[in-house]
Amino acid sequence: MPAEGDSERGGRASGGRTGLRPRFADRFRTAPARESAQPDLTEVLETGVAVATGLRSPAGSPEAVDALRRLAGLCGAEAAGLLVPGQQESWWGPGRDDGIALGLRARTGGRRLSEGDLLALPVPVGPDPAAPDPVLVLAGAVGMPAARRAAGFVADALERAALDAGAAAAEAARLRELRAQISPHFVYNALTTIASFVRSDPARARDLLETFAEFIRHSLAARGDYTPLADEFRSVEAYLTLARAVLGERLRVQVRVAPEVLPVPVPVLALQPLVENAVQHGVERTPDGGLVQVSGEAEGDVCVIAVEDDGPGMNPEHARDVLAGTAEGAGLALVNVDRRLRAVYGPEHGLVIETAPGAGTRIVLRIPRFQPGVVA
């Protein structure tokens, strides 16, 4: 008996692949002898999640191949393949060579092709219509409606993977920009100050040089996207030690951090740019200097970090413009930190600036102590 859906696939033959035992999807096919069988919806949903996750893995990886196996089971295919431009082909099941060859022809022609019991469907992904589309190849008695649904499922998974890759690239670009914004003026003044102690106080010069090395190591050489809050505070203390050596008694510092928040993973350079901003705008611009306070404490499942100065402050409307990146003459450090926090933790976890003219400035971060995917 011909398989259901053959008439919708241009009369493609259902023969050519015999002896393959039925698999997962057979439980969901409607057949006269099994009309009372009902699909396990939980298993279907779990399989769908596994397919979506696997298809977002690199093409050709074991995860991608396993996703094709599961996808084939869902739509009743005997084999499945995915050809993504510029990546290794992924294939599960028999008939790889014929399937890949048909998929390449479909990708070149930009249209659906069938040959024997093989069906190749372009999967439109991305905004560029001129770019070649990925191609999904299915083998076996798969009806066109099921094949189209499978292609749509693949398109959604690939688009989500592209969005994830884009977000990761944007995060890396913001981190590179933050590292590039380390003030050359501060570095020059710090090194000049260290040099001034070489003859008069060699021990202090050595200590400051080690502190400077620690600051540079964390700011420029830190690996990965996240670091324990303890490392961020060490970088802040190194920066403040160097800043006090440069500014002398004009800079007063208070640092308070609760031990329970020290292991919390945070984005690299989430804190130091805020402290540098407080020193530059709250202390250096004031003839008598000022006080910078840095604190970290736990409030339930949230880590609350505050950076405060008693400088001239600013108009709240200007603070909003700073975070929006539209304030004239404003640096990008606060903007980048704010956007990185929102990208990692959600829009409700951006920076909060509390300020008013003559009232100093307080910047608050509220970071979840436990966030899926955030590991130092």
Structural topology:
Layout: H1 41-55, H2 62-75, E1 79-83, E2 90-92, H3 96-109, E3 113-115, E4 118-122, E5 135-139, H4 144-180, H5 184-200, H6 202-221, E6 226-228, H7 229-247, E7 251-257, E8 265-267, H8 272-282, E9 290-299, E10 302-309, H9 316-324, H10 333-345, E11 352-355, E12 361-368
Parallel strand pairs: 7-9
Antiparallel strand pairs: 1-2, 1-5, 3-4, 4-5, 6-8, 9-10, 10-12, 11-12
Molecular structure report:
This protein has 376 residues and is an alpha+beta fold. The protein has 2 domains: 6-165, 2-Layer Sandwich (Beta-Lactamase), CATH 3.30.450; 181-368, Heat Shock Protein 90. The protein has 10 helices and 12 strands. The strands form 3 sheets. The protein has a 5-stranded antiparallel beta sheet, sandwiched between helices. It has a 5-stranded mixed beta sheet with strand order 7-9-10-12-11. The longest helix is centred in the middle third of the chain and has 37 residues, at 144-180.
Radius of gyration (CA) equals 30 Å
Measured by DSSP, the beta-strand proportion falls in 15-25%
Strand arrangement, major sheet = 2-1-5-4-3
Average predicted confidence as pLDDT: 80
Structural class: alpha+beta
Tell me the CATH topology of the largest domain. Heat Shock Protein 90
CATH level 1 name of the largest domain: Alpha Beta
Q: In the CATH hierarchy, what is the architecture of the largest domain at level 2? A: 2-Layer Sandwich
Taken from the alpha-carbon principal axes, the silhouette is elongated
Number of helices: 10
The major pleated sheet works out as: 5 strands, antiparallel
Can you tell me the CATH superfamily of the largest domain? Histidine kinase-like ATPase, C-terminal domain
Total DSSP E strands: 12
Q: Count up the domains.
A: 2
Unreliable runs: 1-36
Percent range of helical residues: 40-55%
Order of helices and strands: HHEEHEEEHHHEHEEHEEHHEE
- Whole-Å distance between the termini? 58 Å
